[in-house]
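During the no-cost extension, the postdoctoral fellow (Dr. R.K.) reprocessed legacy sequence entries with the updated structure-token encoder. One reprocessed record is reproduced below for audit purposes.
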Amino acid sequence: MNNALLSKLGIDKPIIQAPMAGVSTPAMAAAVSNAGGLGSLGIGATNAEGARRMIRDTRALTAGPFNVNLFCHAPANVDAAREGRWLEWLAPQFAQFDATPPKAIREIYTSFVEDEAMLAMLLEERPAVVSFHFGLPSPAVVAALRRAGIILLATATHPYEARLIAGAGVDAIVAQGIEGGGHRGVFDPAAVDDGLGSFALIRLLVRATELPVIASGGVMDGAGIAAALALGAQAAQLGTAFVGCPESAIDEGYRRALLSNPDARTALTSTISGRRARSLLNRFTALDGDAGQPPVPDYPIAYDAGKSLHAAAKARGEFGYGAQWAGQAAALARAMPAAELVGVLDAELNAALRGLTSSIHRDIS
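Re-encoded structure tokens follow.
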């Protein structure tokens, strides 16, 4: 399992826990890193000081490397009229729980592309790995992080994005297939999303650039990791597989929806946050396709409304309006501590590789 990417990252196993803002925790990231994989923190939904606390809390639990992930989306366009129509459309959903929508919604996350405080914090704290989602920061920011000795990763959903990543001086590409849970990492949400699956995308990216490729999307077990490696990836990033771990920050409704349904289904939706993301089917995703649905406000302004609705419903015991992000293979999720899961994944991976080797030897003989 030695390859250039693992050596660069300083990890033993080709297993990366996806960042998952709002789900991953310092305890989860540290457990994965201590087990020989690369743990990750999603810091795009917090400010610089909140992110600093998360990094320091993780360092208190592990001496191993870990990744911190940032959102590089274009800042939202504020449109009071569009946002007002959106809140009016959601009002009947709030009314079910004797609540009213907020009077206004706002841009709740600051994109890293304009967050100077976050950059300053990263240059001070110097985490081993920083990754980007939804695009890339400026060349000057990339150069500053590289000078600080930080390894850089970035998500691509298409070879075009991968070429931009390679040209920016990033160290490795996270190939996000359409099967993956959570937000699509497309650079331009207004452009056509080809919806490339993980296997096709891995092969395309291996051919498109010379950078190491990390498979992401639909990988839930060691056999999936082995398949990704066979296609040319040097590691796999798993998100939904870790959501059910006790170290995750999800609420009881999300946990129940993920782990108690052997026929779990998912769908892509922009209704919850304003950008396309894959979620378990729930009461929020069921709103998609409503004939009266107005245009969705920009991300993350729409997310402000979504979080308010979830809070109102949750206060009355209804969890079905949450952002229950999950990939297409969600039914394979397992509830076990993160370090134990890394061990199980590694054992499954090695068993799959032994089986593949035996099969090749039989074919040759």
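The chain has two domains: 4-75+111-249+335-364, 78-108+261-329. The domain at 4-75+111-249+335-364 is CATH 3.20.20.70 (TIM Barrel). The remaining legacy entries will be reprocessed before the final report is submitted.
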